[in-house]
Amino acid sequence: MSRILAPGALALSFLLMAAAVPATAGCSDVSAPGVDWRRCLLDGRDFPNADLTGAVLRDASFSRAKLAGAKLAGVEGPDARFTSADLTGADLSGAVLRGADFTRAMLGDANFLRADLRQARFFRADLRGATLTGAELSGTDLSGALLGGALWVDGQKRCAAESVGTCQ
User: Fold this and answer.
1) Which of 77, 78, 104, 167 has the most beta carbons within 10 angstroms of its beta carbon?
2) CB 157: neighbour CB atoms within 10 A?
3) Furthest-apart CA pair in the chain: how many Å?
4) Across residues 31-47, what is the average pLDDT?
């Protein structure tokens, strides 16, 4: 037995089906607060001083990207890749960056205030002068990371100039 839907019911059915489909990332979208760049390849791109507050960067790749001075506060970026990226002076406060890769990234004077950096990788990254106050660092790899002058998790300790891999 076939059913014929009234025009209004048909339109409502279509809208409900469309709403059930998850939104996809617009990798060609311009940088803006709240942009959805999950799983996007943005390697080598320039985003200096960009405002990406609250952006979704899950599994995105920013290898060799220029993000100096960018506002990345509150971004959702688990497993994002920032290898060899320039994030000098970037604001990553409150960012969720569990498992993110910052290998050889330039993060001097970056702000990680209350950021979730669990399981993140900072192998040979430059974190000199960065703020790590309240950051979650459980399981974080800081092997070879330059930490001189960084403000440590407790918000009190300033890492000695010669600190590499651990805050001294």
Assistant:
1) 77
2) 14
3) 79
4) 98
3-state secondary structure 98-153: CCCECCCCECCCCECCCCECCCCECCCCECCCCECCCCECCCCECCCCECCCCECC
Structure tokens at 88: 């000098």
The helix/strand/coil state of 10 is helix
Q: How many CB atoms lie within 10 A of CB 112?
A: 29
Enter the DSSP assignment of 27.
T
| pLDDT, tens digit (0-9, with 9 covering 90-100), for 70-113 | 999 999 999 999 999 999 999 999 999 999 999 999 999 999 99
Ramachandran category for residue 160: left, alpha or beta (phi over 0 → left; psi -120 to 50 → alpha)? beta
For residues 5 and 31, what is the distance between their CA atoms, to the nearest angstrom?
A: 42
What is the overall mean pLDDT for the chain?
A: 90
- How far is it, in rounded angstroms, from Cα 89 to Cα 154? 20
